[in-house]
UniProtKB/TrEMBL annotation:
Pfam families: Cas_Cas4 (PF01930)
The DUF83 domain, residue ranges: 114-225
Keywords: Exonuclease, Hydrolase, Nuclease
Protein name in UniProt: CRISPR/Cas system-associated exonuclease Cas4, RecB family
Organism: Methanobrevibacter olleyae
Lineage, top ranks: Archaea, Methanobacteriati, Methanobacteriota, Methanomada group, Methanobacteria
Gene Ontology molecular-function annotations: exonuclease activity
Record carries keyword Transcription: no
Keyword Nuclease applies: yes
Source organism superkingdom: Archaea
């Protein structure tokens, strides 16, 4: 990529913290949850309830610790040769030149989601949004997470007609093992799931626990869970 930029987010938001749900923010009057929660939802919705509604805290797993450390290493290496830029300036520049950025913050106050994109390629022809994962299997939960990043980005640049693609890459490698265009079908798919998530947080829908005992065995909330399948 021709230009490596650290893209700063906007501070022009009315943000409050939700009084009952840990990690939830109220932005411009609407509940707003981290996009990473979609990955947890695909694993077990009930663990969202235990962690964020009941406030149960556990030690991070080894996989979580390793993931955080590897993300930090990649970010530090990127920053060694990257320059700072505002989102608006970087986006305008990308209409003429190729832009590469990491850990770019996106927020969609309308849909109520926010998060940090692991890596984004912006070229005059297309936008590629990449989420790094420890393995090389495209789980539905991982796909949902990257589709939500695509949705948030699209709504931030509503007047742009460049093609947006979502991609999953094996962390620490160049192996992109899943990629799809963010088309109308994928947009409808992720909006449906986001609406379900808001239904959970608003008390309109129940948190459904996994029925997979193998997931329960690996879950860090196992000793606190009354719904486990083992």
């Amino acid at each position: 990529m021709e230009n490596k930029l650290i893209i700063k987010g906007s501070d022009n938001l009315d943000i409050q913290y939700h009084p009952n749900i840990k990690g939830m923010q109220i932005i411009n009057g609407k509940n707003n949850f981290p996009i990473s929660w979609l990955n947890t939802q695909g694993y077990c919705e009930y663990s969202l309830y235990l962690e964020y509604f009941k406030g149960i805290a556990t030690l991070p797993t080894q996989a979580m610790t390793t993931g955080t450390e590897e993300h930090a290493k990649l970010e530090d290496k990127f920053r060694e040769t990257a320059q700072a830029s505002s989102f608006d300036d970087a986006f305008e520049l990308s209409k003429e030149k190729e832009i590469l950025s990491r850990e770019m913050f996106v927020i969609d106050s309308k849909e109520g989601i926010r998060g940090f994109i692991d890596e984004i390629w912006m070229t005059p022809d297309e936008i590629v949004i990449i989420d790094d994962k420890p393995g090389n299997r495209a789980y539905a939960s991982s796909i949902h997470q990257v589709l939500a990043y695509c949705l948030a980005f699209k709504n931030m640049v509503a007047d742009d007609n460049r093609k947006i693609k979502g991609a999953l890459r094996q962390r620490g490698t160049d192996n992109i093992f899943w990629s799809e265009e963010f088309d109308e079908k994928n947009e409808e798919r992720i909006k449906y799931l986001i609406n379900r998530m808001h239904g959970l947080f608003n008390g309109q829908k129940p948190f459904i626990p996994t029925k997979n005992p193998n997931k329960c065995k690996k879950c860090r909330f196992q000793s606190y869970c009354e719904e486990k399948a083992i």
